[in-house]
Write a structure and sequence with these properties.
The structure is a single chain. Helix 2 (about 110-125) links the parallel strand 7 (about 95-100) and strand 8 (about 130-135). The chain contains seven helices and twelve strands. The longest helix is centred in the middle third of the chain and has 15 residues, at about 110-125. By secondary structure, it is of the alpha/beta class. The strands form three sheets. The protein has a six-stranded mixed sheet with strand order 9-8-7-10-11-12, sandwiched between helices. Strands 4-1-6-5 form a four-stranded antiparallel sheet, with no helix packed on it. The protein folds into two domains: about 1-85, no CATH class; about 95-260, von Willebrand factor, type A domain (Rossmann fold), CATH 3.40.50.410. It has helices at about 20, 110-125, 150-160, 165-170, 180-190, 215-225, 245, and strands at about 1-5, 15, 40-45, 50-55, 75, 80-85, 95-100, 130-135, 140-150, 195-205, 230-235, 255-260. The N and C termini lie far apart (about 40 Å). Helix 2 (about 110-125) runs antiparallel to helix 3 and helix 5 (about 180-190) packs parallel to helix 6 (about 215-225).
Length: about 260
């Protein structure tokens, strides 16, 4: 569902807490949240209408689909806000970005990442409506497949997603995992130009090394483009779980743990 609010003060440049304006968001494909942000992320908006996405479930976890505008009320600091527009988005097109960590720390789990991505596409992608792009990141950020609704093209692109070869490493002065840069690039270069429902699916151990962007930059970039971020942890035994698996929940998505012993 999409709820657009108008600040009752009628002034531009107001500040909103993400938790204040974002309802509970259900995980895609039943992914359960295992981590939650400990502090609220705030951001500024220069417009009077704020886009709010919400998913509502009953006590059994089933999505409630027949809610109307009258079933919602929103307040900021105790003051009721006007719901200017209201729409159900469950049937609207979905824009997804599959963000695959291909740094050397993922060498032993890259096949699992590819397999999970393909299964995800099989379960979620509606070829007549939805569009997906695939991006990989390690010491560089690369677009593997531009936005497409073709499952065949996406599967072909995933087949070539891999960790760096020895030759790749010889041509680089240093390694790295440009996770935050990848989220910022995907948000600004792709999601900013899309409308409707948008989400990034990040498959990674959550560790960033070498990005110019910070974790806050990545979170805010997703927020400003109304993009939910779902982070799924892939790592081998003895993994270190990076700070992504806490703060990226601020971007309205969910976190999930998939520890793979190899």
């Amino acid at each position: 569902m999409q709820v657009l609010l108008e600040n009752s003060s009628g002034r531009a440049g107001s500040r909103y807490s993400r938790r204040q304006i974002l309802g509970w968001a259900g995980a895609l494909c039943g992914v359960r949240s295992l981590a939650r942000a400990q502090e609220d992320a705030t951001f500024s908006t220069d417009v009077r209408v704020v886009n709010v996405l919400a998913t509502v479930r009953d006590h059994q976890g089933h999505i409630i689909r027949d809610l109307t505008q009258a079933d919602f009320s929103v307040s900021e600091n105790g003051r009721a806000q006007l719901i200017r527009y209201f729409a159900r988005e469950s049937d609207l097109p979905l824009t997804l970005g599959l963000m695959v960590d291909t740094s050397m720390s993922q060498q032993h789990v890259i096949n699992a990442e590819r397999g999970a991505s393909m299964r995800f596409l099989d379960q979620v992608l509606r070829e007549t409506k939805d569009h997906v792009f695939i991006m990989q990141f390690d010491m560089a950020v690369r677009m593997c497949q531009e936005l497409t609704s073709s499952r065949r093209k996406l599967e072909e692109a995933l087949a070539f997603v891999d960790t760096p070869t020895k030759q790749d490493l010889r041509h680089q002065y240093s390694g790295g995992t440009l996770l935050y840069d990848a989220v910022v690039e995907a948000s600004k270069q792709v999601m900013k130009n899309q409308s409707g429902r948008k989400a990034l699916i990040v498959l990674s151990d959550g560790v960033d090394t070498g990005s110019e962007a910070t974790l806050t930059d990545a979170t805010e970039a997703a927020l400003r483009t109304d993009t939910l971020t779902y982070s799924i942890l892939f790592s081998d035994a003895g993994f270190y779980r990076g700070p992504l698996f806490g703060r990226m929940g601020d971007a309205g998505g969910r976190n999930a743990l998939m520890r793979l012993e190899v």
